[in-house]
Amino acid sequence: MWMICKKEWQQFFNSLTGYIALIIFLLLTGLYLFVFPQSNVLDFGYASLSPFFNLAPWVLLFLVPTITMRSIADEYKAGTFELLRTLPLRSSQIVWGKFFGAWLIVIAALIPTTIYAVSLQALSSNAGIDVGGTIGSYIGLVLLGGVYTAIGICTSSFTNNTVIAFVASAFMCFLLYTGFQAISQLPVFTAGADYYIEMLGINFHYRSISRGVIDSRDMIYFAAFIFLFLLITERKILQYK
């Protein structure tokens, strides 16, 4: 499994596209946080990374499909998937290896952003940033990246076209992140039903962890989503001929 994970990592960083995607992610979040007038934290008057944590899920919505779109689709297209299946690996090991390889890339993209927190803490003249909330938000981003990665791996297993894999993954991530929240706001859902419908969405649980309280229900939710989409992926590649 770790051989597959290593291959995913090397394949991404052997491509110029990979570096460009990471640079754009860091550049966009940096400009949004420190340069753009409507979100510049230096003008807030208090130290907060909330603009970054509000923006990051939307940027990851495009970054993660860029990372995962080639995972299985390229194997189909290049004809190397048959060779992959001849290795002494179970289908679950192939899927999890690709998942962990892509997820590690997402985490690697998030690590440099911790300099934003360090910078704000150093520049703050009062108590500084909310450390608990910041740690919770980063945990939420890592878990959110895991769910997006599982979705991307899954959609990549349904096609040999990387563009279709990218679009399908971005659409699914968008739908699951905001869809249930949008449905819950329909006037037909009242008497608490709107709250339970909103709970089905990724955004609800991401915001919950971002408050700095690690609730086991949120952890189980993210883990269940990851297992579900990877299970679908495993079943799909077993049917591949």
Q: What do these coordinates show?
A:
This protein has 241 residues and is mostly helical. It has one domain. The protein is 74% helix and 0% strand. It has twelve helices and no strands. The chain has helices at residues 2-13, 16-34, 50-68, 73-78, 81-85, 91-110, 114-123, 131-156, 162-184, 193-199, 202-210, 216-238. Helix 3 packs parallel to helix 8, helix 8 packs across helix 9 (162-184) and helix 9 (162-184) packs antiparallel against helix 10. The mean pLDDT is 84.
What does the secondary structure layout of this molecule look like, with pairings?
Layout: H1 2-13, H2 16-34, H3 50-68, H4 73-78, H5 81-85, H6 91-110, H7 114-123, H8 131-156, H9 162-184, H10 193-199, H11 202-210, H12 216-238
Helix pairs in contact: 1-6, 2-3, 3-6, 3-8, 3-9, 6-8, 6-12, 8-9, 8-11, 8-12, 9-10
List keywords for this structure.
single chain, mainly alpha
Outline the biggest β-sheet: none
Count of folded domains: 1
Q: Could you estimate the helical fraction of the residues in percent?
A: over 70%
What integer value in Å does the Rg equal? 19 Å
Mean pLDDT: 84
pLDDT < 50 stretches: none
* Structural class designation: mainly alpha
**Strand portion, in percent?**
under 5%
Q: What's the overall geometry?
A: globular
Contiguous helical run count: 12
* Total DSSP E strands: 0
At a glance:
With 241 residues, the protein is mainly α. It contains twelve helices and no strands.
